[in-house]
């Protein structure tokens, strides 16, 4: 049987702190050969990457694929180039409509292998205020304290 194999390449942990993630969409990504090699060696950074739209197509901006390939035939490897996302038409229209609303943005959450394909998780996000971040930190502290108290109660 064909088993589904998922292996994380990188994750944008900063996004979960800065944004409320309202919806996640899985997408393919168009990469060059040397970019796939750098993804195999985990030389990818997606911390500040986001999705932009141009001519009814979605592109990833600010993702960095570091080149570890020696350059042949005077090729230049642009590590910060804009990469095309492979989305279905209804997913693309949904994202474009939501991003045009005030306060929403589309950011990259994960980059991972799905069998032999590199996939991207796109998060439809709304920014957090400073007091939201403080409340979440207090809730996490309280959960840890509650577990500690219940452990000593038994």
TrEMBL record:
<keyword id="KW-0694">RNA-binding</keyword>
<dbReference type="GO" id="GO:0070930">
    <property type="term" value="P:trans-translation-dependent protein tagging"/>
</dbReference>
<dbReference type="GO" id="GO:0005829">
    <property type="term" value="C:cytosol"/>
</dbReference>
<comment type="similarity">
    <text>Belongs to the SmpB family.</text>
</comment>
<dbReference type="InterPro" id="IPR000037">
    <property type="entry name" value="SsrA-bd_prot"/>
</dbReference>
<dbReference type="GO" id="GO:0003723">
    <property type="term" value="F:RNA binding"/>
</dbReference>
<protein>
    <recommendedName>
        <fullName>SsrA-binding protein</fullName>
    </recommendedName>
</protein>
<dbReference type="InterPro" id="IPR020081">
    <property type="entry name" value="SsrA-bd_prot_CS"/>
</dbReference>
<keyword id="KW-0963">Cytoplasm</keyword>
<dbReference type="InterPro" id="IPR023620">
    <property type="entry name" value="SmpB"/>
</dbReference>
<dbReference type="Pfam" id="PF01668">
    <property type="entry name" value="SmpB"/>
</dbReference>
<dbReference type="GO" id="GO:0070929">
    <property type="term" value="P:trans-translation"/>
</dbReference>
<comment type="function">
    <text>Required for rescue of stalled ribosomes mediated by trans-translation. Binds to transfer-messenger RNA (tmRNA), required for stable association of tmRNA with ribosomes. tmRNA and SmpB together mimic tRNA shape, replacing the anticodon stem-loop with SmpB. tmRNA is encoded by the ssrA gene; the 2 termini fold to resemble tRNA(Ala) and it encodes a 'tag peptide', a short internal open reading frame. During trans-translation Ala-aminoacylated tmRNA acts like a tRNA, entering the A-site of stalled ribosomes, displacing the stalled mRNA.</text>
</comment>
């Amino acid at each position: 049987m064909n088993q589904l194999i998922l292996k994380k390449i990188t994750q944008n942990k900063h996004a979960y702190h800065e944004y409320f993630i309202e919806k996640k969409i899985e997408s393919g990504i168009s990469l060059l050969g040397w970019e796939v090699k750098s993804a195999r060696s985990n030389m990818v950074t997606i911390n500040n990457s986001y999705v932009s739209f141009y001519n009814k197509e979605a592109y990833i901006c600010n993702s960095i694929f570091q080149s570890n390939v020696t350059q042949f035939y005077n090729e230049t490897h642009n590590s910060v180039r804009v990469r095309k996302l492979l989305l279905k038409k209804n997913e693309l229209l949904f994202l474009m409509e939501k991003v045009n609303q005030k306060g929403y943005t589309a950011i990259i959450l994960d980059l991972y292998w799905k069998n032999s394909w590199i996939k991207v998780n796109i998060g439809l996000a709304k920014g957090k205020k400073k007091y939201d971040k403080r409340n979440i930190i207090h809730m996490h502290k309280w959960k840890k304290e509650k577990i500690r108290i219940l452990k000593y109660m038994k």
